[in-house]
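Fold these two proteins, one after the other.
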Amino acid sequence: MTTLKIGVKAPNFKAINQDENQVSLSDFKGKKLVLFFYPKASTPGCTAEACNLSNNYERFVANGYAVLGVSADSAKRQSNFKIKYNLPYDLLADEEKTVINAYGVWGPKKFMGREYDGIHRTTFIIDEKGIIEDIIAKVKTKDHTNQILD
């Protein structure tokens, strides 16, 4: 879905997190970043993905990664999601879809024969210099950590 390619500079962004604090790509300069886009907080697939990353958070930290989730949910909904599942990383509330559109993960989807526009579950691995190192478009929600770190 995304037109971004491995080896290009990741689009800069500014958005609020679950606590309504501003977060931008430049906050992660000098760190590797796992930037994962998910359709909706607290839904089964998104919960499986977020919890898989959370359960393996120490592995990410040990490998020099920060983790950041993004969806079009409100800050309140992101906050509830983070608290309910004790997620150790920030979740961006991108209600205006600024970050979502910059990364090209919004578009037509099909579910149970119905077509609609939504977020395509996609993860971008961004290196210390802000370059896209990898793009995972076929996310395995229950085994996403191994897709990223293996």
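Now the second one:
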Amino acid sequence: MNKIQLIGRLTADPELKSTNNGLQVCSFTVAVNRRFNREETDFFPVTVWREAAVNCSKYLAKGSQVGVCGAVQIRRYEDKDGIKRTAIDIQADEVEFLTSKSESGAASNNVSTPKKTNVAQLEQVDDDEMPF
């Protein structure tokens, strides 16, 4: 099984392109902090296709936090100097937007705080009235 899940922030604005066949493709890089050493970061190139590509281009920006699920694609090739190279790319099946485009600029610098709810505004419910 080839499955990867990442949560991180975009290092730059996503780039939307179109193939010769008119298929939309969006690419961006996600910076992911290591689990046990927060000072080390890995950078994953991500590719998204079709309608999801258009949505990523429209709603994501540098600094946006995303969750990505997909597969790892490894390509081996020979460069112009005859040196064998390896390129790794994440082919995204799902991209979840964890911050909005307007929040992404502030999100890279600040940790967002949850909104507080006024307890006086909450309605009390009797447990006997619950259907389950």
